[in-house]
Design goal:
The protein has a single domain (about 5-260), classed as UDP-N-acetylmuramoyl-L-alanine:D-glutamate ligase. Helices cover about 50% and strands about 15% of the residues. The chain contains 11 helices and 9 strands. It has helices spanning about 5-15, 25-35, 50-55, 70-85, 100-110, 120-125, 145-155, 190-205, 210-230, 235-245, 250-255, and strands at about 15-20, 40-45, 60-65, 90, 115-120, 160-165, 170, 175-180, 260. Strands 2-1-3-4-5-6-7-8-9 form a 9-stranded mixed sheet, sandwiched between helices. α2 (about 25-35) packs across α8 and α9 (about 210-230) crosses α10.
Length: about 260
């Protein structure tokens, strides 16, 4: 894919307001990640206002990590607003295979056709009805095992599916990319994946979802590589990662992105 840095510049020029209904663990880190990359975060989940706020936002993320019935209803209301308005929303089905509540809620959200579905291999396999060897919220399957499931889900929803792992896979059901950027320390920091949802959503505002998602994955992973080159462990990695996101330029992303077209 040529010039992923173009997508970074376009996102920063827009400075999109990203509405996030995410888990309790992620809120602070995710807000700081979005600010660092150049977007404007809002954490709004109260059912009394969630639909109204979704009408104001340019993108939405939904993460079921600590959902309950009330949050689930709020997620559905906000997602319906976004889908109806043709604005992008990103769905992260955290631990979908762990409980019946998560599976039922995820099925309802998937029916609202997210612009991007992002999960680990086990979550994507579970949503496609093809099993999945999850360990709670952690994947027990390899990314390659979920590529066919990702294509099935992309065709079913009409959106993009991203499978996260050491090498990410992203597809719209017809075309696909693998994105090889990243650093091992990213897996040692909680909510790195949750925070990635917001970056993907921001990149997708007024940009083609497949290319924008691939560019967002590369930008995020490349920032991890930059941070990992200087960090001595997870504690020093997190602030270095925020600094790397903030400092990243289009030229740096173009030079460092490892995005391979595979279909």
């Amino acid at each position: 894919m040529k010039n992923p840095g173009h997508h970074l510049d376009a996102m920063r020029s827009a400075g999109p307001l990203v509405h996030n209904i995410t888990n309790f663990v992620a809120m602070n880190v995710m807000a700081n990640v979005l600010l660092a990359v150049g977007a404007s975060p809002a954490m709004v989940h109260a059912r009394d206002e969630v639909a109204e706020f979704a009408g104001l936002a340019q993108a939405l993320t939904v993460n079921i990590g600590t959902a309950d019935a009330e949050w689930g209803a709020a997620m559905e209301e906000a997602a319906a607003i976004m889908s109806g308005a043709g604005r992008p929303w990103v769905f992260d089905p955290v631990g979908v295979g762990a409980t019946r509540f998560r599976r039922t809620l995820s099925a309802r959200l998937l029916a609202l056709c997210p612009a991007v579905l992002r999960g680990n291999a086990s979550e994507i396999l579970t949503l496609a009805g093809l099993g999945g060897a999850a360990r709670g919220v952690d994947a027990g399957d390899a990314v390659a095992d979920a590529e066919a499931a990702a294509r099935i889900l992309a065709r079913r929803t009409g959106g993009v599916v991203a499978v996260s792992g050491p090498v990410d896979y992203v597809t719209d059901g017809r075309r696909a990319y693998r994105v090889a950027n990243g650093h091992p320390l990213m897996a040692r920091i909680t909510v790195m994946g949750c925070s990635l949802n917001g970056v993907i959503a921001a990149f997708c505002v007024d940009q083609p979802a497949l290319e924008a998602t691939a560019a967002a994955l590369a930008a995020y992973g490349l920032a991890g590589e930059t941070a990992g080159a200087h960090a001595t462990g997870p504690g020093s990695f997190q602030p270095a990662f925020l600094d790397a996101l903030h400092a990243q330029s289009a030229a740096v992303l173009d030079a460092g992105a490892r995005i391979e077209a595979v279909g």
